[in-house]
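Bench log. Compound arrived from synthesis this morning; before running ITC I wanted a structural hypothesis for how iron/sulfur cluster sits in the protein. Inputs:
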Amino acid sequence: MTDNKINLKYDIVIIGGGPAGMSAAIAAYEHGNRSILIIEREKRLGGILKQCIHPGFGLEMYKEELTGPEFAARLIAKVREYNIDCRMSSMVLDIDRKLCVTGTSSDLGVFTVQAGAVILAMGCRERPRGALNTPGTRPSGVFTAGAAQYFVNMYGYLPGKEVVILGSGDIGLIMARRMTLEGAKVKAVCEVMPYSGGLARNIEQCLNDFNIPLLLSHTVVEVHGKERVTGVTIAQVENVPGKGRVPVKGTEQFIPCDTLLLSVGLIPENELTTSCGIRLNPATKGAEVDQDRQTEIPGIYSCGNVLHVHDLADFAAEEARIAGEAAAERVRKLRENAGEKSCEEGGFKVGLKADGKVRYVVPQVITAKKDVNVFFRVSDIFKKPTLVVTASGSAEGAEGETGENVLLKKKYLKLVPGTMQTVTLKKEMLEQIPDGGRIEFKLLPGDAE
Amino acid sequence: MKRTITCIICPKGCEIEADNDSGTLVLSGYDCARGKRYAETEMTCPMRTLTTTVRLPTGRMLPVRTDAPVPKAKLFDCMAEVAKIRLPVKPVAAGEVILADICGTGANLIASAAWELNANP
Ligand SMILES: Cc1cc2nc3c(=O)[nH]c(=O)nc-3n(C[C@H](O)[C@H](O)[C@H](O)COP(=O)(O)OP(=O)(O)OC[C@H]3O[C@@H](n4cnc5c(N)ncnc54)[C@H](O)[C@@H]3O)c2cc1C
Ligand code: SF4
């Protein structure tokens, strides 16, 4: 070889070997493709599930409650059974618009893979402290909850003895219990919002079981300590119009502790996505996709937590199956039409919009007239709201009604930001909408809190 | 006693109203039979599945769990037992019993993942 760079070729290249990446690979295989490569930067498959030793996985997919490693093992077993190629300890550095993936690994050095379809499944990471703006010195003892989870569950290293947790997302709640069981004293979980983003079951079994107080509408206003954290000052917050949630003077309270864990949200890991020119949706922080999870670049798909943060690994894995199947189908079609120019189908495209109360919808574009499951999340707690999905730009059947056509209405008892919802847009509904039309998701509040 | 119990059996998290003032337990608000059973035990002897880790000979941790819920009141006793475990240098299969009948609860502590001798550190 003249060029010492290794050049590989696969039909489908999947970036990330977490539940989403593995599910996409499995679905592509089951759709008939036999040229699939998973590239994973770590030594083992499983993604974040390796460190999620608690139960709560698999209820949707396998109808039984599994721990993270057990859930991952089921997917890994299928990947092995199907003999799907995996390049471990390999980091993808770049993807280009021609679907050429560049990566690096210790055994191959820099390598490229030419793909017929690329599936992005890089997952998400936690928002670090910098994103938080908590004033104070920078002593050691401040960790993200996920980093603490990694230390405790993978290395058996307890990062502190007296702990305050900021943020009540599920990872924070899970870590409150984990640190308590390992002998630490968790003094409080502070949540800046008036509600927790975590599941009710986790508040019950991770906090209430151990009498750990959950302080809603509270935040950490200062971190104390020079070398190591010696305590934090917390304060109540109130919503000031125009300013957001600000601390209330006079409510400050000092809590001695040696560790502060941050569980303040996850952001999709989209550096690779943006580097090939794919724009991100401001609400999901992921790519915008069609019903097949295809991004604006034909042949590049996105699924799992890199597309939008899922509450459950089950949902991330299920979504990835859509991308895996669609990628396999694309490759099959390309092959069938080899020689000919790829045939654009029907030229149907409608955009999906959220009204703000509905924070986001996925997919954002629909290009096929078939049943489509739409995921959505709301921006606040709503009691007894009604979801109204309308179509505009519709030609038929909507005269006189400002061109808007109600596709579906659904009443809910309660909608919360922490729980993703799904509705199905039926083929018949989509058939009423002309090319270039728009579907809007609106929430009519019953009584907002 | 009247109590609201948040069901932990599935992510739905139903709020179950429990009332045993009349001598018999009256439950409402559960969405399925498993939730009803959960509320019944919650009113008598709350039970929880324990998940934790055991140190491997390599220094890394092996995830473990109880194969059935144990009394909530015994969680810390179980953790103390788990801390005493020293695993021999031999492969572990997923589901293998690491400690039988932990703290006399009748539940076994089992491996949640496999471990091979030449596995990654
Ligand atoms: C700390 C933490 C704890 C969580 N706890 C829970 C929980 O308890 N329950 C739950 O249901 N969900 C939990 N989640 C959410 C969880 O991430 C998802 O449910 C699920 O794991 C998402 O799957 P995924 O495959 O999209 O992402 P991941 O599991 O994150 O997998 C992404 C994979 O991509 C790899 N990767 C990324 N970039 C590259 C690159 N450039 N080259 C090669 N490989 C790359 C990563 O190494 C990783 O293995 C947690 C998330 C985090 C961050
Ligand atoms: S009662 Fe049934 S549906 Fe409701 S949370 Fe419990 S298990 Fe889930």
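What the model suggests: The radius of gyration of chain B is 18 Å. Residues B 7, 9-10, 12-14, 30-32, 34-35 surround iron/sulfur cluster (ligand 2) (CB under 6 Å).
ITC booked for Thursday regardless.
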